[in-house]
Amino acid sequence: MTTHAPNPDAPNPDLPNPDPTDPYRWLEDVTGEQQLDWVRARNGRTVDEYTHTDEFETLQSRIREVLDTDARIPYGRRRADYIYNYWRDARHVRGLWRRTTVEQYALDAPEWDVLVDLDALAELEGENWVWSSAQVLRPGQTRALIGLSRGGADATVVREFDIETRQFVSGPDSFELPEAKTDIGWIDADTVYVGTDLGDGSLTDSGYPRIARRWRRGTPVGEAPIVFEGKQTDVAVSASYDRTPGYERTFVERALDFYTAHRFELTDGGELVKLEVPDDAGAGVYRDHLLVRTRSPWLGHPAGTLLAANYPAFLAGARDFTVLFTPDEHTSLEQYVWTRDHLLIVLLRDVQTEVRVLTPGPGGWEDRPLDGVPPATSTSIIDVDPLEGDDFFLNSSGFTVPATLLSGTVGEPIASIKQAPSFFDTENISVTQYFATSDDGTRVPYFVVGSNTSTPSPTLLYGYGGFENSMVPAYSGGVGRAWLERGHTYVIANIRGGGEYGPTWHTQALKENRHKVFEDFAAVAKDLVARGVTTAEQLGIQGGSNGGLLMGVMLTRYPSLFGAIVCQVPLLDMKRYHLLLAGASWMAEYGDPDNPDEWAFLREYSPYQNTDPDATYPPILITTSTRDDRVHPGHARKMVALLEEQGHQVWYYENIEGGHGGAADNAQAAFKSALTFTFLEQTL
User: Fold this and answer.
1) Mind telling me the catalytic residues?
2) Into how many domains does the chain fold?
């Protein structure tokens, strides 16, 4: 490993440094005053360079219009007769938690009943509250468990809310917990399952609950009976209650790592009954149905297969499965969700969606297409309520097609009930899918969006490539206004590490095979140039989180392919990532740096350990958030400091709020987006 002397200009006067090979480790102190002075200095330089122009102000304002418009779809979750929605706009910066009736929701202008005004609450309590979550107690819907984050962090304060009085419940009889990465869920009005930070030994190395408890109202949470206790090295432990009438039961999950888990049913007698399915499979129980989605071959079925069995018979030892879906080289299972009596599934065929309905019956399972889904769009299931019926909400959109909210009931026609506005002119913009060939011969799909794709022009290539996340076509008013309207080209790369072709598209790029992710992305970049879509000097790239790691590798391994790089909330120091915040939970994805055999392949690409003072790097903008408690901001800070020391052109912006998303409200999101596109426009 190459080491470098500390930058004498860095504000680091004799700070203790336990690792002489890492001179910028002092920047891992997130809120230290000297560290924040370092941040402010670089923020100021970036702001001065890119934001003090009329063009920036106009772009920021136009992106803010997209985020704030009242015409966008108020997506909601149906709970019996109510639709719940969290809403932010120009007047409600922090947002409103509100609800309306199902009948009102179908109207163009529903009458909303505001439950929590987060702006008013933040002002009253002097806190920078950011909305996190709300769990409504069924069936009465009189109480809710609300998660509030300070500045957008993953850790939340949990507070109980009385929906009838519109007041938070406090005192010893309430379900109220201080800031932590808490897992909590209702059992009944007086009981919850909970895992939270209760001091030494209560959390895993990844910072998530290690112990699940059954907590009864009016008792100290630390004295609540333990229902399951995992190991320190696990990712997390959780318990949940299934309230399906006639099938009420408790399930416990022990996540061994990010992709493997042990699952149990906890009987009324306190016995833990293990579900004997592969640790790496996805498994769920609904009524008498057990569904298993394989991530590796099992019982003669390939990875990515969806299997169904009778759950009581399975517990008794039977292994009779019905195959509901089998993948092929073009098709994978992206999503599956139960309504009351049917199973909705979303398939990806070469990264384009198809929705089907599967129905169990006395004669077996019926499989039929879901009619009425708009063509040439990507469709996802966004809400069902199996406790109430077979109703569902779908969302459909495409690169040039604004989102449509579809409402339906299985067996009845689908209706379009909400339509997002169009934010940019798409008349001359085309969408084309191409395939690049990676180093090992794998065909890698990517989408090209633009009005001038036959002549080389400024192009932005986006990638992620991890955690089995699929990058599907979707409408973005911000990208349209900031990039496509200027005649530029936008590209999404469906590289390995994602889930576009099922689990194997992901698993073949884990750990020692991570290089395939980088080779795929580089292959797409080369293919864009070969097709004449762009040139290397006009090609910008962008990625965040795991995609930020991808950007760091592109900088250090393939710098000649690109003209500019935007690296957001990134992992960059793969030597220490597992020691920072939630990093330990990702070792199944990347590997263990403390294992010499695994560090051998990690060190080959870890950006922080592979910078070269003699290399020519394209300009790079690195952004993060002080309040990101998932990917430590130290990754970004240290990389910037090292690149500065080596004389490379690097720009930096760290938002004080925002969590892993990088922004705590629409104003911050618009600023961050405008900064990104201004940097790309000026650089390319």
Assistant:
1) 545, 660
2) 2
